[in-house]
Design brief:
Helix content is about 40%, strand content about 15%. Helix 4 links the parallel strand 2 and strand 3. It is built from eleven helices and ten strands. It has one domain: NAD(P)-binding Rossmann-like Domain (Rossmann fold). The longest helix has 17 residues. It is globular and about 55 Å long. The strands form three sheets. A six-stranded parallel sheet has the order 1-2-3-4-8-10, with helices on one face. Strands 5-7 form a two-stranded parallel ribbon. The model has no long low-confidence stretch (mean pLDDT about 90). Helix 3 runs parallel beside helix 4. It is α/β, with parallel strands linked by helices.
Length: about 280
């Protein structure tokens, strides 16, 4: 039995679908039905109950885009997950991390750096899957692309190609990794079949919508006021993350030379977003 946290999210759902599609395991699971355990990620006892007796556990840490200074929310989750894994002792652990988890500078993704550091102390086989920027983040652009022919980009310059990946690829690769056997701790990097620029995203929208669409940068000096107007209290980590992508210090090792490559194109993702 596999324990999958975040199964209702995009990556978790693709992981579960892929596992269930496996012919042998799918028949068994379909006959027995999946067991659902509801557990808050900061509740160690509930997580322990969900993880106990499992062959492998998939950890999908909750995303916090407006964390308090020092990341206390992430620390609560990390402490609970570590305690639960130590007590439940599953066969192996796959944790969804991120590109930039090894960045030296503090930023929004440092929450994943902290998770990796904590799980690396476990005496269990642990894999950290580090995907690139999710292509599905373009969901925020659907309305403006359709209504005004413009998408607004925090990634700059507009012709710079960034490591991006579809959540379907992340789920598929996660399903493969969680069924493998390994020892110790390993890191797996993952990006899409090709790197994507904001201009590429605009071109994909233009193709799918069959109308001109262009990308425009959101001026760096406006970010803090903009994020605060949207309700954020602590925009600093998010701004530093965006700086990291733009300045190149959030990147895969070797520029992605050893990263696994997915198969889902930016056009496929944009088409699915436009279709709702």
């Amino acid at each position: 039995m596999y324990a999958i946290t975040g199964i209702t999210g995009k990556v978790g759902s693709w992981l579960a679908r892929t596992l269930l599609a496996d012919a042998r395991k799918g028949e068994e699971w379909a006959a027995l039905g999946c067991e659902v355990a509801i557990a808050a990620m900061e509740n160690a006892s509930a997580l322990t109950a969900a993880f106990s007796g499992t062959k492998a556990v998939f950890i999908l840490p909750p995303s916090d885009f407006d964390p308090q200074p020092g990341y206390p929310e992430a620390k609560k989750v990390i402490d609970a997950v570590v305690e639960a894994l130590k007590t439940a002792k599953p066969g192996k652990v796959l944790c969804l991390s991120t590109v930039g988890a090894d960045a030296a500078r503090d930023n929004l993704l440092s929450q994943r750096t902290m998770m990796e550091a904590a799980l690396s102390t476990l005496s269990l086989p642990v894999t950290f899957l580090r995907p690139g920027w999710f292509l599905e983040n373009a969901a925020w652009d659907v309305a403006t692309a359709r209504e005004t022919g413009v998408i607004h980009s925090f990634l700059i310059p507009l012709d710079k190609h960034f490591p991006m990946v579809a959540t379907r690829d992340v789920g598929r690769v996660a399903a493969k990794l969680i069924q493998e056997d390994w020892t110790g701790t390993r890191i797996v990097e993952l990006e899409g079949p090709r790197r994507v620029s904001p201009n590429d995203l605009a071109a994909a929208f233009a193709k799918i919508l069959e109308r001109p669409v262009r990308a425009e940068t959101v001026p760096r000096e406006t970010w803090e006021d903009l994020f605060r107007s949207q309700g954020m209290k602590y925009p600093g980590p998010r701004i530093r993350m965006l700086d990291g992508f733009n300045e190149g210090w959030i990147e895969f090792s070797g520029g992605g030379a050893k990263a696994l490559k997915g198969t889902v194109s930016v056009e496929e993702v944009v088409a699915s977003l436009v279709q709702g």
